[in-house]
Amino acid sequence: MRGSPSLGSTNVERRYRDVGPDLVADLERIRDLGVEHTDPATGTVWEYVDLGKGPTTLFLHGMAGSYDIWFRQLLAMRDHQRVVAVTYPAISNLKELTRQLMGLLDSLEIATVDVVGSSLGGYIAQYLVANYPQRIIRAVFANTFPPNTQIAREHAQPFQAVKAMPAEDVMARLRENADENIVPAAGRSPLVRAYLLDQAAGRMSKTQFIARYACVLDTFDPPDAGAKPLMLIEATNDPLVSPVLRELLKKTYPQAKKTSLGDVGHFPYLNKGPKYTALLEEFLS
Fold first, then answer.
1. If DSSP codes are grouped into helix, strand and coil, which group holds residue 114?
2. Confidence (pLDDT) at 1
3. How far apart are CA 216 and CA 207, in angstroms?
4. pTM above 0.85, yes or no
5. Cβ proximity of 238 and 266 under 8 Å
6. Domain 10-284 belongs to what architecture?
């Protein structure tokens, strides 16, 4: 697929040298299954994967991710249900992003889904529950934050600074943050490190990153807390979602099932894959 270098290429292979060969093979399997959808109104191209049969779970990634970041869950769950994961193109507002996302589901003849979103994906999942309630059965909001004023207030200036930076500097910052903050919080997981370095080395463009950043700053009214079965997943040492925002999420959805995975960092579906998958399957069964 476009912008998707093989895991067998020299540079990519070097990033994954400390990751178990079975995990590398599984990740490559999901990457090989990716396909494209073109939004008929705009010509925007979406990359996604669609596996299995039965009731559908839609997986939504965070700022530094692609559809394949869910590879451990996709491979484990596809035998007993349909699983769809997408990569966000460079769309900088939630209204248009979700309109096109619903169009992709329409093209696949999927009327309703359970939705699992992490970080920005969890924020998008909340928007879907609020604005497309007829399409959502149950929702998981993981390692994320509710609609709030804090993020926009704190990130207005950094956002403008990042927009003005050369692409190579943006990606260098992402690599530094991964090594200094995200990977240590994930127990120094080789898989988390390799995947994030991969994203910063060409699998995600600066244009995509800036558009995703803009979506984080977008705002909306949260959905009715009791309208759908909800589960919240958090990590006690999440380096990207502050304790204040984690508490605000729980206050916004007081009736949701709440699960803390402890000190597992921001990407537990990668570094704690089987445990995370079992948690999802229990809630979505």
1. strand
2. 47
3. 14
4. yes
5. yes
6. 3-Layer(aba) Sandwich (3.40)
